Queue: 2 jobs
Job 1
Amino acid sequence: MKKTVMMSLLVGASLFATDYSKVITHPDASKMIQKDLLAPPKVFTMPAGCITTDPDAIARGAYIFHNLNGKKAKKNPPKGLSRKNAKGKPKQYGNCVACHNIEGAKGAGNIGPDLTDYKENFIDSGGRDHQFVFQKIADARIDNPDTHMTINLTTKLFTPREICDIASYIVAPK
């Protein structure tokens, strides 16, 4: 008896239910997907005077290398670097240390190449040049389409100056 009454109620309710299928929006997902796609890999030319021994530039590069974002960054940023971006939101830093080891790193990763003694091992030996370092940080997909490294200049995560600062830090004697 209970089962019959319940079925009758359900059937009766379904006859009077409102059809909402026409008021549900169906956005064009292809537009959203296009917006999220990365631009194709791009070759960048390192600006003149990019790699420097200027202690302020190296300090900025080190800060970007070792911190994730301005909101949770360790210590105050060095001269010429802010915790906030142009829109007033926390500045996204590189957090390169999550994947790369380098002299003095705390909690360094081992996913990316070890950058310890980079200048001695790669620049001084002639194996790589400063343009290579700049390009790797700007858009590493040029020579490795399957890279897991962030695409920093193509996506405008960093400015050319910030990439120069990071590159200056990597190749600086420590």
Job 2
Amino acid sequence: MQPPDPAAAPPRAPGKHSSFEFVAHAPVLAALAGAGRVLDLGCGRGDWSLGLARRGIPVLAIDLWVDGLAWLAAQSHGLPLLALRADITAPLPLANGSVDGALLALVLHHLAGSGRAPGVLTEIARVLRPGGVVAIVEFLPVPPPPGPPLAVRVPPGEVLALAAGAGLRGDQPQPVADHVALYVLRKPA
């Protein structure tokens, strides 16, 4: 099964696999469009990774989900995409300043709920080049459905504080779906 093509498929209600199925693609892809190499952390089956790679952006997609990574690898032939099984809460197997962008799509609330968000964001900042961009797609703290319980959603002020603690700067988020926003953060040059 092919993931939706962002040019052809309008966002729809949340599905089983990916925020790519219901989040407006254009703002997320535009935030990372100038990046030379992007990390998709907690990529799931890699729909966002494929969307970026189909635009010629080299992607390193990282997740622990074996079946999702296998599906992604099968879909990515001929694309500038590498799928890697790794724990995003552990040190990333990358040199300092070696990537231009990173994506966390509906991952931050899981990390924040377990207390691991500060470490992951600090690690992203470490591997991000100065001036690099981080796109965070995350549920807003409004009553569900869709999405996780209200208690685990991370308020915008907290997202920005977590980012600032890692040395990343950004503005208030922009909506990209009902109950979902995009945070565009940068590592100072």
